[in-house]
From TrEMBL:
Gene Ontology molecular-function annotations: ATP binding; ATP hydrolysis activity
InterPro entries: AAA+_ATPase (IPR003593), ABC_transporter-like_ATP-bd (IPR003439), ABC_transporter-like_CS (IPR017871), ABC_transporter_ATP-binding (IPR050763), P-loop_NTPase (IPR027417)
Protein name: ABC transporter ATP-binding protein
Highest taxon, organism lineage: Bacteria
Organism annotation: Alkalicella caledoniensis
Keywords from the named record: ATP-binding, Nucleotide-binding, Transport
The keyword Transport appears for this protein: yes
Origin organism lineage: Bacteria, Bacillati, Bacillota, Clostridia, Eubacteriales
Amino acid sequence: MNKVIEVKNLVREYDSAKGIIKKENVKIQALKGISFDVNKGEIFGLLGQNGAGKTTTIKILTTLLAPTSGEAEVLGYKSFGEEKQLRPLINFIFGGERGLYWRLSARDNLTYFSDLYKVDKKTRQKRIPELLELVGLSDRADEKVETYSKGMKQRLMIARGLVNDPEVIFMDEPTIGLDPVGARDLRKIIRNLSSLGKTIMLTTHYMFEADELCDRIAIINKGELAALDTPMNLKSINSGFSVMEVKVIGVTPDKINKIRSLEGIENVFVSQQELLQVLQIQCSNCSDMTPKVMNILKDNKTLGINIREATLEDAYLNLVGGVTA
Ligand SMILES: Nc1ncnc2c1ncn2[C@@H]1O[C@H](COP(=O)(O)OP(=O)(O)OP(=O)(O)O)[C@@H](O)[C@H]1O
């Protein structure tokens, strides 16, 4: 089977309450009818801002949440209705350190979770040392998890998610909070899993990570699919322009609008970094535009200006809007 995940017109609503004194019941539409397929062996990324609907999608696909309507199938089984058949074939790895027994060693954690998945003794005896090796924990396998670094705990989370040798692995922000080396090691493990034929769906807020790892990326915006393509094709949305990045203090919305209305400027996104504002100015010829932009900002303290190639993050900002003034 080539299509491993099939999602059609998936809708999920949550009941919620609004107001402090007088509570009013409201429905939140977290997913508004999204559709996509994932092929065998793919690393498929789900990107989107906070509250876009990524976790809701993953929870439905991992049988933890029922959809309001629409279809979600994994390996030919309905994630709601055929969860008994599906659960042994998938696993879910979330970032952070939740879900491990800190008083137990890595080996004992993996034995415990193998028991939960009813992995027989013979298979387990072979698989646990292999998993410890895969995530680089063989040397420390018999020490208590509470003595591990964050990166080691996160690598153990990966091993935990593999105890049942799942065909499809769901990962929610697997590298969150890791230092660059720890995150790089974890990405290597993810690529390794993919080369072993596993299908991986992951969410991340790190654009370079999605760019580096994913075969295809779905961008979800407010419960809807904003784009679905390879990182290269998504980046080509930006072909023909570069980005001028200006670090500045105290720039007003009025000045941003002046920059935005200059001929040759495609788009301007603003983000706050402590006291600084960082302007990401997308332009067809940034070198030519620099004096005009600097003229508008002449009364502001400018701390740096840099012209760079457009990245996946710039494409993402164009698709979901991003933070604008
Ligand atoms: N149990 C719940 N009850 C009410 N609303 C919920 C519940 N879970 C999620 N939501 C809402 O559904 C929407 C989508 O949430 P979801 O957690 O899927 O987003 P996300 O893309 O995973 O966000 P993040 O990147 O912050 O994890 C949000 O508006 C959220 O507030």
